[in-house]
Amino acid sequence: MHVYEFQDMMRQIYFHHDSKRGAEGTYLWLVEEVEELDEAIKGRDKKALEDEFADVLAWLASLANVVGINLEEVTMAKYNQKCPKCQSKPCQCTQSFTALPLGQH
Amino acid sequence: MHVYEFQDMMRQIYFHHDSKRGAEGTYLWLVEEVEELDEAIKGRDKKALEDEFADVLAWLASLANVVGINLEEVTMAKYNQKCPKCQSKPCQCTQSFTALPLGQH
Fold it and tell me: Do the Cβ atoms of B25 and A100 come closer than 8 Å?
């Protein structure tokens, strides 16, 4: 399934809820699911891991619908067969991009 | 582009970095990007918003590659043309699912 098709399917299933909840509330759900993904990774539970990856992508699509972003378009505009920083595939970046994000050490 | 094609493209560009960084470090990057998405939403900057949605999806795909999850498969297994809770499209759920997540009020 194309990324835009998935986003459209999420719109058909959830937009009546998502638009009422708004960007802030939908973002909080996304954060909640990202936290649950962490628990699933640490718990090494395959079924929970599958569920949580699905939920994070679903809530990301819901949030994109609420704020009017086409996920596939913006992602392909930035990551089109190469790293947007070094313009290479595979990525040749050697700096902080490959390590942990700032402030997370 | 199919979800699995995007995930595979991320593998080709970044897996040498992602596998070395590991699940925990890659998860921290995902969290960092989710936080930047919040700033972009609050800042109402269209270009930043597009960039951050792309980054969150990219890091989610990287993390899925590290832990061996096929994003498209698990998402379609859970969200296949209907809400997994009420089995309807549009979703007919009336409970907490439609409000803010627990502990976030």
Answer: yes
Where would I find the H helices in chain B? 3-43, 46-67, 71-78
DSSP per-residue codes, A28-71: HHHHHHHHHHHHHHHHT-HHHHHHHHHHHHHHHHHHHHHHT--H
pLDDT of B56 > 60? The answer is: yes
Please choose, from the candidates B73, B84, B81, the residue with its C-alpha nearest in 3D space to the C-alpha of residue A53.
B73
**First-last CA distance in chain B:** 37
Q: What is the ipTM of this complex?
A: 0.93
Mutate to test the interface with A, among B20, B65, B69 (most CBs of A within 10 A): B69
Chain A residues in contact with B15 by the CB 8 A cut-off are 90
Write down the pTM of the prediction: 0.93
Report whether A41 contacts B60 (CB < 8 A): no
